[in-house]
Every structure is written in structure tokens, then in C-alpha cells.
Amino acid sequence: MNDRKQGLRLIASGSYLPSRVVSAQEAQEGMEVDERWILKKTGVQTRHFAGDETIASMAATAVREALEQSSVGLEEIDLLIAAGGTPDQPVPHNASLIHAELGFPSHIMPLDVGATCLSFVAALQLVAPGIASGSVRHALIVSSEKPSVGLNDRWPESAALLGDGAVAFVVGPAEGEEGILFSRFETHSEGVHLAEIPAGGTRLHPKFIEDPQDERYLFKMDGKGIYRLASQLLPDFMVSTFQQAQMTLDQFALVVPHQASMLALRIIRDKLGIPRDRFFINIESVGNLVAASIPMALHEAIGEKRFDRGDRILLLGTGAGLTLGTMGLIY
Hints:
The structure is a single chain. With 331 residues, the chain is of the alpha+beta class. It folds into two domains: 6-175, Peroxisomal Thiolase, Chain A, domain 1 (3-Layer(aba) Sandwich); 180-330, 3-Layer(aba) Sandwich (Peroxisomal Thiolase, Chain A, domain 1), CATH 3.40.47. It has helices at residues 24-27, 35-41, 55-68, 94-102, 119-133, 156-159, 223-245, 262-272, 283-286, 293-303; strands spanning 6-7, 9-16, 20-23, 46-49, 79-83, 109-113, 139-145, 165-172, 179-187, 195-196, 220-221, 254-257, 312-319, 323-330. Helix 3 (55-68) crosses helix 4 and helix 7 packs parallel to helix 8. The radius of gyration is 19 Å and the shape is globular. The two termini are 20 Å apart.
């Protein structure tokens, strides 16, 4: 656990959601479940699916909006961090492709951070020391995801849940008390295969699989297994986190969780005793956006003025692995 405060300011943000909206009613077509099951299990009423958009093009739109909302010029930015779980292609990875899409100058270094649903939180943690020391003046962190291409209707727990979209944040040096109060990650590798796409890498390369429709290329999630492991581990994880940080939940104006599913969100809220008005949920309208889930919720919460500058906010989620992660911030 890192509980040494690191100054960092979330300066501005931007987002992109594809124009195609998929309702729960439309999603049930081809699945062996109905709309009621989808709404009960996932809580997703609508989500967005990309068409011709790529990870890079969606990210570029979100980045442009974030830059427009800030007073930071490209000459002041040193890093472009692509924090996500779905790549446009294996090499070069997303950050370089986004860099090219935006036509960025050569001094901005592209860097990828892959921690699936916790990628944005991990990127904040990794960039904070550089910003605090001054070795990084400003950074762009963008999470752009297109999981819709890998969904399998035979696995409705994920096929009815995941959506596409992108969100970007401009981050820079603190101007006051802003910064990371603490961060903590734990990986319990007994859950490493609970959410995965087995094929597509060097272990199960396409040249070894004759059928391009092989289901090993698609996302597979054991929702019940993830729920059992996460619900068993998360309460103690958060109790010990607050103990080590010498803080309490009531010191935070808002909890921004990964939008895993509505069922999971309700269980987390109940187990941790988080009041409804301090627990941000947007899964109904966008679904689970993988790594873009937490920053999109944070972006929307800022837009809705759910907290003010100087308030404490808590980011919380799980990622494939199985990894638990949390971060306390002063906004």
C-alpha cells in the first residue's frame, strides 16, 4: 500500500460514446435470456457499440475534448498513457496508435498501462511520482475500450453487460491539497482465469487455430466465480486499507466504483455500508466499459457536480487477475 500523499491535479476530462445505442430489449435477441433477466442481473438498460470507430479514434475524440476543457498546451505534455484492456492491434499498441491519430509532436511519449478494469487507477498511481517530482509536467491518461467485438451471446453475463467508449483526463501538478492520499492493489491469482480471452497472443496464436470463429477468441467471464471471490475478499481489503490509511469512509464525499454489474454494485454498497447518495452509478446508461468504467463515472460525476474541489473521493474496483484496487484522492 502506498499511503504517502502525492500531489496531483485532475485538470480536465473529455469523453466519447459511439452513436449506436443498444437497448436491453435489442440485446436479448440471440441470447437464451430475456430482457427481464438482463435488467435484473446487469442493470444495463442501454449501452453504446462502436461501428467503424477504433480504439484510437474514440480515444482521440475524448483527448481533444479534455484538452479543450483545459488550459494545457501540447508543449506542456510529456506523456500520453493509454490505460485499457482492449487493443486495436498487438504491435504497436494503443498509445502509439492514439499518438498517431492525434498527430502529436514527437516529445510526447506514448505509454500503455494494462490492468484491465483497473488500468486508469493504475495509470494514476504510476504517473503521480513523476508529476510530484516535476520530471513529468503534464500527462494525458485515456481509457478507450471496444469489448463489443469479442462478446459471445452464449455467455449472456458478459454479452449483455459490456459497452464501448472512451474517456480522457489531463493531469498535472497540484495547485493546493489535491493529490493521491493512498492507493492499494492486491492480486489473488486463484481467480486468474475467471475473466479472460484465451486466444490471440503467442500461447494460442491465430496460426495455431484453424477456425477464426473459435470461441477462445471471445471474452469469457465466470460471473458467479468473480462474485464469490470478490465478495469474500473485498470487505476485509477495504477495512485494512482504511486502517492503514488512518481514514474512514465518511471522510469521502463520493465513492466511484467500477461498474461491474448492478447486482455487484448493490452488494458492494451494502457490504461496505456506503450511503446511496455517496455511491455513483451510471451502469444503466453505458454498461460496463472495462478500463473506461471508473474514469467515465468520475467524468460524469464531475459534470454533475457531485463533489467540489478539495473534496475526498474514493475509486474502487476489481480487475481480471483477480485484482482488487482502491485509491483515495483529494480532488
